[in-house]
Amino acid sequence: MKSHGITGGGSVQLHVLETGNPLARPILFIHGFSQCSLSWHRQLVSDLAVDFRLVAIDLRGHGRSDKPRGAYSDSKLWADDLNAVINTLRLENPLLCCWSYGLTLLDYIRHYGTDSIAAIHLVGAISKLGSDDALSVITSEALASVPGLFVTDVAESVRNLEAFIRMLYARPLSSEDLYMMLGYNVAVPPYVRQALFSRIVDNDDVLAKIRKPVLITHGKQDAVVKLDAVDRHKALMPHAEVDIMPTAGHAPFWDDAEAFNRRLRTFVDSL
């Protein structure tokens, strides 16, 4: 496993992991709200690494990347971050695989288009925020947890984050996995989480213009994003393939990594 330091938008320093076959098709994994590149551990250490070049970014504000204040509302900065990773690492026609906080992937497409990528994979993803329509695809349980993710009292923050983490997975977590996840969630400052959730964005126009291959994966037991989100995205991208994983929650790549990896492999092989 290699680590890279890459300069993103506004000179933010980004931490990026890489493994796999350097000569093969690249897959760029983009984690969700308050997570980090380690979310994709069950992909990075899988047999996908034999046949693909696997890259996972710590988004700005997360993991080992810089965590500046006031640097999360501008979609161009997010777009520049992903563009910097693609260009610096010379990822040729990568598949962009984005979990949950789909805004970051769509920020990139809004500003840089799809000419330099092969396909996109939306996993339990939302594509808009800041309106009643946007929030309607998020479960009431998840919405109720949001204010607790912004508190600054350490003990209270840790309790709230643990409850939030458990909500992401349909299957019980081992103590080892829970504490790893809690560690990288705690590493995200509350002001970053608040800034991410405070964005006002609607990407329906971007989705409607996408012509590259698309795979939409969603856990049937997702306790965070409703299945309605899949229907909305499919309506905007009729050519998209859809995979509903029956035993998975909001993080199907973790709940049923074997099935997720197998479907991802099939999709990439078809490009």
Give an account of the 3D structure.
The chain is an alpha/beta fold and 271 residues long. It has a single domain (2-269), classed as Rossmann fold (3-Layer(aba) Sandwich). Helices cover 40% and strands 20% of the residues. The chain is built from 13 helices and ten strands. It has helices spanning 41-44, 48-51, 75-88, 103-112, 132-135, 140-145, 154-168, 175-186, 190-197, 204-209, 228-236, 252-255, 257-269; strands at 2-7, 13-20, 26-30, 53-58, 95-101, 119-126, 128-129, 201-202, 214-219, 241-245. The strands form two sheets. An eight-stranded mixed β-sheet has the order 1-2-4-3-5-6-9-10, sandwiched between helices. The model has no long low-confidence stretch (mean pLDDT 98).
End-to-end gap: 26 Å
| Structural domains: how many | 1
Question: Could you name the CATH class?
Answer: Alpha Beta
Question: Which structural class is indicated by helix and strand composition?
Answer: alpha/beta
How much of the sequence is in beta strands?
A: 15-25%
- CATH homology superfamily: Alpha/Beta hydrolase fold, catalytic domain
H/E series, N to C? EEEHHEHEHEEHHHHHEHEHEHH
Percent of residues in helices comes to 40-55%
Strand order of the largest sheet: 1-2-4-3-5-6-9-10
CATH architecture: 3-Layer(aba) Sandwich
| Poorly predicted ranges | none
Main pleated sheet:
8 strands, mixed
CATH fold-level assignment: Rossmann fold
Q: How would you name the oligomeric state of the polypeptide chains in this document?
A: single chain
The rounded Rg comes to 17 Å
Instruction: Compute the number of strand runs.
Output: 10
